[in-house]
Amino acid sequence: MKFINFTLNAVVLTAILVQTACTPTNLTKENVIPKPVSVVSSGSSFDLTDQTDIYVQGESLELKQIGQYLANKLNPSTGLSLDVKTTVNIPAPGNIYLCIKGGDAELGDEGYELTITEKSINLVANKPAGLFHGIQTIRQILPSKVEMSTVQKGPWKISTGVIRDFPVYGYRGSMLDVGRHFFGVEDVKNLIDQLAYYKMNVLHLHLSDDQGWRIEIKSWPNLTKHGGSTAVGGGKGGFYTQKEYSEIVKYAQDRYITIIPEIDMPGHTNAALASYPELNCNGIAPHLFTGREVGFSTLCTKKEITYKFIDDVVRELAELTPGPYIHIGGDESHVTPIEDYIPFINRVQEIVIAHGKQVIGWDEIALSTLKPNSVAQYWAKAENGIKAVAQGAKVLMSPAKNAYLDMKYDSTSAFGQNWAGYIEVDKGYNWDPATLVPEIRKENIIGIEAPLWSETVDNRKDLEYLIFPRLPGYAEIGWTPANLRNWDNYKARLVNHGERMKAMNISFFPSKMVPWETNEVK
Ligand code: IFG
Fold it and tell me: How many Å lie between the centroid of ligand 1 and the Cα of residue 72?
């Protein structure tokens, strides 16, 4: 009898141990990136089961879409076939409930409050964008295997507690240069989903450069027909039809991401100049350019047709772009005399505003007279950012030395450049936009953007190698208060995201700065 008793106890004890071991019960130990503002654990866990459904409050199509986005992310790996249902009451226990409740000023438009008990998961926000950010957190507090695309073994348990969360900056983004090398709609959609996972809300598309014009402009068809036909290295170029561009805009919008289109001018314009001789001061169109040099081209700032051209381009682009900004570039105009550059940028700002949009430009535009809502994107010269502040303009922080995703990680990196230095994962994380340049203070900054220039990459795998694992760090810099951020804490969370990136088929640089091997698979 004694023996059987002992065995029974051992079995029960083991069951409890196993259950406890794989049952997450400490919400503060989860690996959410960006780090939430506040996490309180209540020490138990919620079970996602085949009885669980996602309830949204009321009949709103937008909330149903958000619920469906979550279901589409959870169902393939859990096999639980979560349905999305609407309700006007609190759902029965065992379900996920998404609800818009105004009046929580601290959460703003993008924040959320996630309350998890043993009986339910309640996600509340002032606006749908907040719910959308909250469902990324739900994904990240489930085991990493939830991101797999095939059914994985459960159980699917979530630690109980309350997460209150909201961003520091309203502009948290990345940029993809599709001018040097073209990336098709599917590659851009893939990047948009990755930005969404880390609560980023802007994708800046660098649509034109010396090597390529990548957006159809109906009134100037040769821009893509000729100017879109090649790329760095002379390979196949490409471009987005206006229909495809609108598809990208919608896909981004459904993920609470704003597309900001850039037409770089007056420099970085060889593709346009090669397409229309009349845009050149000498009336002669240059050859298409497939090299990597910069600063050798300029629109003819003296000719009226240049401003007709810009007006047509901005008009068509503004009609296709629901977001508030048009980016006018303005960088490296080394062959545009400054006395021509300044009035040119002044006039282009007028054109953009006439089409109902606000201007963003690289920091050199601060040499002109910035319109009240124009934004200078600091990339190289702090003094230009300071000039923008002096004019009362806002600054978007993209310091090349800290945030250029096309910089190599180190001397062994397979792709990328190193003119702004190497950016290992820790260097990309360890800086604060609000103190980097003392004269550019937090109140002058609209946010952060990590640009990816594509001179050295022409396919998704290589793109991801440069973007990851640095992007989550920029997302955290844009979202999480600086006093809550530190490299050791972030590094430990990033380890777990190695599993998540693998599960999402993201190819990332296995930086030696991150102890990937310490990940305990939950
Ligand atoms: N500077 C150029 C980009 C690109 C980049 C590569 C800006 C604003 C170097 N301009 O960055 O076109 O060539 O790192």
Answer: 37
429 C-alpha to ligand 1 centroid (Å): 21
Pair of tokens at residue 279: 């845009």
CB 454 within 8 A of CB 406: yes
Q: What CA–CA distances, in Å, run from 154 to 50, 74, 115?
A: 11, 12, 22
pLDDT tens, position by position, 41-79: 999 999 999 999 999 999 899 999 999 999 999 999 999
Protein residue whose Cα sits closest to atom 4 of ligand 1: 453
Ligand 1: residues whose CB is within 6 Å?
Answer: 294, 331-332, 362, 379, 404, 406, 417, 453
**Closest by alpha carbon to 510, among 502, 190, 365?**
502
Q: Whose CA is nearest to atom 7 of ligand 1?
A: 331
23 pLDDT band, cuts 50/70/90, is confident
HEC string of 129-168 equals: HHHHHHHHHHHHCCCHHHHCCCCCCCCEEEEEEEEEECCC
**pLDDT tens, position by position, 128-153:** 999 999 999 999 999 999 999 999 99
Planar angle of CA 54, 251, 248, nearest 5 degrees: 170
State which ligand 1 atom lies nearest to the alpha carbon of 209.
12
Distance 453 CA to ligand 1 centre (A): 7
> Please, what are the domains in the chain?
7-165 (3.30.379.10), 171-503 (3.20.20.80)
> Cα separation of 16 and 439, whole Å?
58
- Name which residue sits closest to atom 11 of ligand 1, judged by CA: 379
Give me 292's structure tokens: 């990597």
Q: Per DSSP, what are the bridge partners of residue 361?
A: 376
- 332 CA: nearest ligand 1 atom: 10
Tell me which residue has its CA closest to atom 6 in ligand 1: 453
The set of catalytic residues is 332
Q: Which is nearest to 138 in space by CA: 150, 146, 127, 148?
A: 146
Atom of ligand 1 at shortest range from CA of 420:
14
Residues forming a β-bridge with 327:
262, 360
